[in-house]
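haha ok so turns out i had the wrong file open the whole time. this is the CORRECT one, sorry everyone. sequence first:
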Amino acid sequence: MSTTLLSGRTLARLMQQKAHDDARNLEAEGLRPTLAVVVATDDGSTQWYVRSIERAAESAGVSCRIVDLGHDATAQVLAGVLKDLSNEPTVHGIILQTPLPPGVDADALVGHIAPEKDIDGANPVSLGHLAVGQPSFAPATARAVIEILDHFDIPVAGRNVVVIGRSAVVGKPLSLLLLERDAAVTICHSRSGPLEKYTKTADVVIVAAGRIGLLNSSHISSEAVVIDVGTNVLPDGSLVGDVDQASVRGVAAALTPVPGGVGSVTTSLLLLHTVEAAREQSRAFVREGAA
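then structure:
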């Protein structure tokens, strides 16, 4: 059978154009949306990702400040930088990029990101709001999956959706977003046993485990939609996902490519979130001034 490729590039361009238009409107009011990305690693995949954010931000008219603290930065230094950025009026969005230096706990640091600037939904406060349906920025990668499903008119209400991976960055928040759409969600992880026990009957399979070739044609049905969230850098610098794409093509009904799938939409969403955060912070400042 023919597998439909669910490219995210067109959707990403549409989002980037919206971010650009909204950023121009804000700049006409004297406000330039600014994103700060805090980096403390020399990891190849992270550097690739940060470069993609920089390029996209430049095209969208969003200022992007890369705060590179080096691969040996301490937790104290990182916490101080996040607090300072949270208090800086000219910064509207903050990302703490992982991985971090050995011994540095990301979970203990993301709480220093002000929730109103937490445009990648890392702060536990943001995740808590997401869990109970209150306004917050969802992690951009998790929301990117939802945006792709919507863009290609792939319904999830009442359908069996399997999410492979339970991280707080993708798996858990994505499951919450899917539940909001009335999907029947199953989360698989390293202790779940054979994947095919869950994935063979799934309508939609979303893989976000960070393991090359984790999912192949033996795991899925011929009607399945497969969303590959993986971003793994090979020794030659090329990027591959968690799905054995050559194996799955011709079996799955639809498949997101890597690169050019979820990742491109994620980057555009971060810019949209930054612009939204800048707008809301400006409104909050006006409200406080009028109070």
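Residues 30-114 form a domain with the Rossmann fold fold (CATH 3.40.50.10860).
again sry for the mixup
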